[in-house]
Design a protein that fits this description.
Shape: elongated
CATH class of one domain: Mainly Beta
Number of helices: 1
Helix content: 10-25%
CATH topology of one domain: Immunoglobulin-like
Order of helices and strands: HEEEEEEEE
Mean pLDDT: 79
Low-confidence stretches: 140-144
Structural class: alpha+beta
Largest sheet: 6 strands, mixed
Length: about 150
């Protein structure tokens, strides 16, 4: 009887081990499981390359009425969302028709970069908007958004 019990115990252990050890194979198809790969985390960075000198300080202002020259140096992004702090937004990687206004105030630009996994990173920059008259420029008709008011 002891031998029968020992034999049944060994058989039960062997069957149990065989069921739990499938060598990493998919239990329904017998193929290896597909590894999950995640996108690299995004890094949000940008520069405005046409900043002007204002009050003797280089690169702290943008000229009202001048399109921003944006260099998006972000990494690992699949979608982009720009908020220019004045009601205007864009989903382009490098918006080509973006302006800051009105003048005589700071505008904060926010860039949110999202990868395919939905992971986001944000970068912000605050820029003073100089009135076009104070930097010797003039605005050409039809170059500003419809809701822009000349000061």
């Amino acid at each position: 009887m002891k031998q029968l019990f020992s034999l049944l115990l060994i058989a039960a252990i062997a069957i149990s081990c065989n069921k739990s050890s499938n060598s990493g194979l998919n239990s329904t198809s017998g193929t290896p499981p597909t590894p999950v790969t995640h996108a690299a985390p995004p890094v949000a960075t940008f520069r405005i390359t046409n900043l002007i000198t204002m009050n003797g300080i280089s690169g702290d202002a943008v000229k009202e009425g001048t399109p921003l020259a944006i260099s998006n140096t972000s990494q690992n992004g699949d979608t982009y969302y720009w908020d220019f702090g004045n009601g205007n937004v864009s989903t382009e990687k490098e918006p080509g028709n973006a302006y800051l206004y009105p003048c005589m105030q700071n505008n904060t630009i926010t860039l949110t970069v999202t990868n395919r996994d939905g992971v986001s990173a944000t970068s912000t920059g605050t820029f003073y908007v100089a009135c076009y008259r104070s930097v010797g420029g003039r605005i050409l008709p039809g170059t500003m958004p419809a809701n822009w008011q000349q000061h």
